[in-house]
Amino acid sequence: MNRSWSALLVAVAAVALGACGAGAPSPMSTFSVEPQGTPSPVEVPAVPTETAAPPVPAAPPAPGAAPVPEGPGGRSVPLGQVFQLRLGEMVRISGEDLVVTYLQFLSDTRCSPGVRCVVAGNARISVTVASDTHPPATFVLNTDQTPRSARYQDRTVEFVGLTRGNQPTASFRVD
Question: Residue 19 is inside which H or E element, if any?
Fold first, then answer.
């Protein structure tokens, strides 16, 4: 096998082992192909391993409908508008019998900004959607894998984006 291909395979194996948690992440050499087809070494940090925030306790499952929060402290947004939620925060959709809660930050394997990675990665969260007339439903949504959205009653809850950090802010849209 060609020497540069062997080095590339070793680099890919190292990334795969790092993503599986086998060893601490460390910088590694990989190769990029120049326009002339000549491999040249490029220093790239290992793909980050999955990180997770401490779990947020979920509300006990309700056999029937969940009460939708009301009151002066509650925030509401119009249908179709992108909105942001912090971990544990909820919002009512104006004119709808619907509340969205950012329940839990599950994992984030996205490539860090400014770093070239073999795989872009994915971030996962869980969100609960509730109404006064239907049982609540909890969904796991992703940034770069499916599902990115979920259906509840006749509405779609779309996971639009996620900031970085241990307790990132999530963006959603309900249509």
Answer: helix 3-19
Instruction: Compute CA distances 82 → 6, 31, 85, 93, 160, whole Å.
Output: 47, 40, 10, 11, 8
What is the band of 147 on the pLDDT scale with cuts at 50, 70, 90?
very high
Q: Look up the pTM and report it.
A: 0.58
CA distance 132 to 33: 57
Tell me the two tokens of residue 62. 């309700």
Range of the domain at 120: 76-174
Statement to judge: residues 117 and 157 lie in one domain? yes
Distance from first CA to last CA of the chain, Å, rounded? 53
Neighbours of 75 (CB within 10 A): 11
Number of residues assigned to the chain: 175
CB 86 within 8 A of CB 102: yes
Per-residue pLDDT tens for 14-72? 444 444 444 444 344 333 333 444 443 444 444 444 444 444 443 333 334 334 444 34
Residues 35 and 101 in one domain: no
Looking at the structure, tell me whether residues 18 and 94 fall in a common domain. Answer: no
Long-range contacts of 40-44 (CB under 8 A, 24+ apart): 42/116, 44/115, 44/116, 44/117
